[in-house]
Amino acid sequence: MPEANIVLKNCGVIDPARLDSYLAEGGFEALEKASGAMTPAEVVAEVKASGLRGRGGAGFPVGLKWGFTRQAPAEIKYVICNADEGEVGTFKDRYILEGDPFGLIEAMAIAGYAVGAGRGFIYLRAEYHFLKDKLAGAITQAKEKGLLGGFEIEIYEGAGAYVCGEEMALMESLEGKRGEVRYKPPFPPSRGLWGQPTVINNVETLMSIPRIIKNGAGWFTAIGTEKSKGSKVFSVSGDVGKPGVYELEMGSPLRELVEDLAQAQDTKAVQMGGATGRLLPGAMLDTSLDFENVLGAGSVIVYNSSRDMVDIVHRNLEFLAEESCGKCAPCREGTQLMVVVFKRILAGKAKERDIEFLKELATTMSLTSLCGLGQAAPSTLLDSLSHFEDAYRARMKDIAGAVT
Amino acid sequence: MNMTAKIREIGKQGRGREELLAVLREARESYGCLTPEVIVELAAGLDLPVGEVYGVATFYSFLSTRPKGRNNIRICKSIPCFLKDSQIIIDTVAEAIDIQPGETTADNRFSFELTNCIGACDKAPAMMVNHRVYGGLTPAEIARILAEHK
Prior knowledge:
A: 44% helix, B: 150 residues, elongated
């Protein structure tokens, strides 16, 4: 399948510093159509009909989220754009924010109109501070031209915490607190930021909205697979000839992304979705990229045959142990414990019961952690045990039948 | 308006809670680090418990409760940069300024730390000096980059 061009349509085409350049590409026509020719309920219905699902990793239907927020009885509602792109190996939102800030602003204004929110926030990760002035400039230009109606958009900067990409932790942080996750329910559409109904969407998710409104849900549903409509943007890094940002139609084979576009050779494994993602062996390169199979938030890290997967998993676990927010015990203690056991594996001192213990710990963490960080923390570990058992065995060669 | 007056103003308006992170970020920039004295002063000005302010100050990696140099070097230690030999960059920087990660130079010019993914994996290995991102690093470029920061 050819590269798709929906989310990244304007990146590299428009001058991101000039509103007129965005307008020349048909910018703000979707917002005009939504607020001029459609009722808020019709906008929500259109997004529902498009089948658009969240691109931040969880894949929740966007129209459903917007519908719940619209129906929530409250005077004050908020729209949040999650630009806290902290997943290891992701930089696609940076690329979008750099290349098409107006598209994001238009999408947020459409969301505000649809759900009845007057105020929106872009939660920008601290590492992307260099984008703040450019984004602020784009907001000012759109506002001065009167394109946003009364919708206010503010940029809120994070201060360096991976877990703040989790929606509840992000809202705590936006309220000026430690970025610790909240218990769910209540979910953001009923009680989100400052206890008010809130729509929170990832940068990439929002970028499809203007195209859906302008071209209609039918246009969007014709792209992709049965359960995964539209396109997905990937950040490819690691052992590839051409690292970078690529947009593909949902359902494209992983091989096309990794070998044809990013020019990987001799691929041993691909890590999809970052530290909490999946580890696929090279033999699975024909897997299709969609919610039915494997997707994640778009981080694609490629490993060639020279890489030791035990070392890679150890680095993932160390990252998660550092970034756990500490609120719930299964994640706080579990991520630390996994690192302790891994140190034993790396030192060649692990026994069979250590592997059994890791598996049991993984189950406990998946079942009982409060948020995605702890729930998915063991996933690269479990995948490596099923696909790269030999790597563990080599580290434990003195112990007969060490890995079962 | 100086920092102290601004904080009192925020406290008086009862916005201490929601502005806390922004205030801490600004205080970190102007004071260099969030010492116990700074935290106590902020808490009083914002009308918040000291523990609350300290709790937030220690949660985020960009807020420091320990003294930092004028320029903060953050080298990415995450997997995409590791695959592109970030260790060589770490060693080169450590040698150039003669300190280890977590330390500050005696002349207070540089602090040096390792950080998790900074979203520059397409330009790995990468690092940040203050808010600026440098990618596609080679050991040969380190001296020139460091010379930009006095």
